[in-house]
Amino acid sequence: MKICMIGSGYVGLVSGSCFSELGNHVICVDNNLNKIISLKNGIIPIYEPGLEELIYRNVKQKRLKFSTNLSKSIQNSDIIFICVGTPTNKRTNEANLKYVFQVVSSIKKNLNKYKVIVNKSTVPITTGDKIEKILNIKINKNKFDVVSNPEFLREGEAIRDFMYPDRVVIGTSSKKANNILKNLYLPLTKKTNKYFHTSRRAAELIKYASNAFLATKITYINEISNLCEKLNIDVTDISVGIGSDERIGSRFLRAGPGYGGSCFPKDTRALLSISKKFKTNLSIVKSTVKSNDERIKYLQKRIKEIMKNSFKGKKITFLGVTFKAGTDDMRDASSLKLIPYLVKKGSRISYYDPTGIKSEFNRKKVKYYNNIKDACNNSDLLILHTEWNEFKQLNFNKLNPKKNLKIFDLRNLYSPVKMKKKNYEYYSIGR
Ligand code: UGA
């Protein structure tokens, strides 16, 4: 199949590379010339384990190409995937569809033969209907079908999630388009029967409902962890105890600093604004958003208690600053709110992140070190902010022999019992 991925960001690049790995001819398009030049030179603009090798291999086999020429790429392809960003409009909380509709207007002019137009961007329900309406002019008759195919890739696990999907959701009423996509995904779905065909609107809602459900699950365990702290119960026992009930499921029950990233915060808000538009009260999602927003205050309060409200001149080290491990993505990371708060309180901040220095922080006030030891040197408090493997078996005595070193583990990476035995002043979440 000849495939065009419009938008070479996270979704377009990962999905495009994986489709080429499955033997398709893929062209990834972007209007950012620098990005395309970098990609042509083998420089990958995002951090995603395994992606560089995947791109290298498929470029070498001439199955994967990069271009800024949208018209030509559309004309030469059978399947067009729309993979552009849908950022939150800060004023209305709605997903901003500017980029989606810009792309649609190019597709409209370049329908030289029948094409399946597949929307992978996360868009409000009924966007597929609007795209169809725009494309539906006389000369385009019978030349297209508009399909919704939401993506469920996690950053840091994206290639595995693509190659071994829990499900592939295809929303369309067209038999022809459904057959084309069924064949495209067959290498991934034939063994497990994970191909799910539904209506276009349902597919659009499945994406939002999935992310909002997962965000709610995390928020639920975070609130339960608050109760555990009051009752001297270990929340990780609760996660195991409830998660082993198959109706609940064990994943996404890790208590922590609250959900962040480019998807859950954006999609929960967008779903609320859709529900408002259709006059439906999604009170559970509303509570989730509110509770997660308030989590930062909880973290600040905990740090205040740990530091006994004494911040002036104290050195605080963050191990990891991104929104989770396995990614260089800083969007909605709790460090973005915690670090400025601690700087304001008069602390000196240092950090180490496996994905390098971050432009989000003021270099003069927030110091980056390229190794764990230097970042932790002479620190008063270590904050284990993300769950990278390299943070999981640290020898704190060697890292920082200070007698009253405090450790705040936001990801429950260590056993409180073992840490107590070693005489560390150790704090974690919900335990
Ligand atoms: C999420 C979904 O998991 C993907 O299925 C979806 O495709 C993607 O959004 C998207 O819409 O594009 P991602 O944002 O990469 O993927 O990250 P997750 O691994 O889901 O984590 C989201 C947040 O929840 C992170 O801040 C993470 O630290 C937090 N989390 C996750 C917890 O606090 N506890 C958990 O048990 C799991």
Unique ligands: uridine-5'-diphosphate-glucuronic acid
Low-confidence stretches: none
**Which term fits the overall shape?**
globular
How many distinct beta strands?
14
Short description:
The chain has 431 residues and is of the alpha/beta class.
Q: What features would you describe in this structure?
A:
The protein has 2 domains: 2-198, Rossmann fold (3-Layer(aba) Sandwich), CATH 3.40.50.720; 206-431, Rossmann fold (3-Layer(aba) Sandwich), CATH 3.40.50. Strand 9 (315-319), helix 13 (335-344) and strand 10 form a beta-alpha-beta unit. The radius of gyration is 24 Å and the shape is globular. The protein has 431 residues and is of the alpha/beta class. 42% of the residues lie in helices and 14% in strands. Bound molecules: uridine-5'-diphosphate-glucuronic acid (UGA). Uridine-5'-diphosphate-glucuronic acid binds next to helix 9.
What is the element layout, followed by pairings?
Blueprint (H helix, E strand, L loop, with lengths): L1 E5 L3 H12 L3 E5 L3 H8 L10 H10 L3 E4 L2 H6 L3 E4 L15 H12 L5 E5 L7 H9 L8 E5 L9 H6 L4 E4 L3 H15 L5 E4 L1 H32 L3 H9 L20 H14 L5 H24 L8 E5 L15 H10 L3 E5 L13 E3 L3 H5 L4 E4 L11 H4 L6 E4 L6 H6 L3 E3 L4
Parallel strand pairs: 1-2, 1-4, 2-3, 4-5, 5-6, 7-8, 9-10, 9-12, 10-11, 12-13, 13-14
Helix pairs in contact: 1-3, 9-11, 9-12, 11-12
